[in-house]
Design brief:
Elements: H1 11-24, H2 27-36, H3 42-46, H4 52-66, H5 71-81, H6 87-93, H7 96-111, H8 119-128
Length: 131
């Protein structure tokens, strides 16, 4: 049964949706959520709730369901995700395999590069993700 995702109006709503998405490992619903969420609001919406599992479902959803439609949006989400409160902690706790997934997303972004970001922007962001 498909989750219906509505635009979260605040960090609490966003957190509730993320919990359901994560519990169901629903990457399509996560992609829907990320597609309707303004990337600039991501750090505020995540507040201090960013965790490894959530980070990974974001990465996977962006790769499988958003990248093909809108590489620029994926770049924006990765950029603002790196501004979230617990980003550095989550990054430090990723396994080698999980880091590979992030690396793969960056590789695909450079292949699908569009006018919304330059390869230089992408390289700079990669450094933030310490890849």
């Amino acid at each position: 049964e498909k989750l219906t995702i509505s635009k979260p109006s605040n960090a609490y709503d966003f957190g509730q949706i993320i919990n359901v998405v994560n519990a169901n490992k629903d990457k399509v619903a996560c992609a829907d959520l990320l597609t309707i969420t303004d990337p600039k609001k991501l750090p505020m919406l995540l507040s201090n709730k960013l965790e490894g599992e959530i980070f990974l479902i974001f990465i996977q959803s962006l790769e499988y369901y958003v990248l093909g439609k809108d590489p620029g949006l994926v770049y924006q989400h990765l950029f603002y995700l790196s501004k979230a409160e617990r980003f550095k902690v989550v990054l430090a706790l990723l396994s080698k395999n999980e880091k590979e997934q992030v690396h793969q997303l960056f590789d695909l972004l450079s292949e699908n590069q569009n006018h919304q970001y330059s390869l230089e922007d992408l390289e700079n962001l990669k450094k933030v993700y310490e890849l």
